[in-house]
Design goal:
Elements: H1 7-13, E1 18-19, E2 25-26, E3 33-41, H2 47-54, E4 61-65, E5 73-75, H3 77-85, E6 90-97, H4 100-103, E7 109-115, E8 127-128, E9 132-134, E10 137-139, E11 144-148, E12 151-155
Parallel strand pairs: 3-4, 4-6, 5-6, 6-7
Antiparallel strand pairs: 1-12, 2-7, 3-8, 3-11, 9-10, 11-12
Length: 160
């Protein structure tokens, strides 16, 4: 799949495609990214985020349902660098990141609600590879996500 897939073109070609609500900011060094969805659902605890990103990414995108919490960060520069080294295309977080300046220099797609300097707890609570719903979309593991400056598009099959 080309890395030049634009969400605007996908929406023009597939008018019924799912589009996430425009609530995310771009933080990563890669602004265009796409791949198969893998999910984690956590609350102010990033242990499962790290465990997922320690695996070979194979061009996937980790979708993190952090419940929209703005009280701590679920991703920092060390985990983002590891994700890039392990071949992940991107991370979409319904929550916060930290180390934004450093993450901007890592060639990884990162979208999140905001930044927060506080790190998360480390209890390991949460769920992995389940359908999660936020931003007006149900994110299903194995389906595809396409992201760029204009937004995020989800589809059950490859669109481009």
């Amino acid at each position: 799949m080309s890395s030049e897939i634009r969400t605007t073109d996908l929406c023009d070609e597939h008018p019924d495609v799912l589009v996430a609500d425009p609530i995310f900011r771009d933080y990563g060094g890669a602004r265009l990214f796409h791949g198969r969805i893998t999910t984690v659902k956590v609350h102010e605890d990033n242990v499962l985020v790290r465990k997922a990103l320690e695996e070979p990414g194979q061009g996937r995108v980790l979708v993190v349902d952090g419940g929209g919490s703005l009280r701590c960060a679920l991703l920092g520069d060390n985990i983002a660098a590891m994700a890039h080294q392990n071949g992940w295309a991107g991370v979409i977080i319904y929550g916060c990141i930290r180390d934004a300046e450093a993450i901007a220099s890592i060639p990884l797609g990162v979208k999140a609600l905001a930044t927060h300097p506080r790190k998360s707890t480390k209890k390991g609570a949460g769920d992995r590879d389940i359908a999660v719903t936020f931003a007006g979309v149900t994110w299903v593991p194995g389906e595809l996500v396409y992201a760029d400056h204009d937004g995020i598009v989800c589809a059950p099959k490859q669109l481009a």
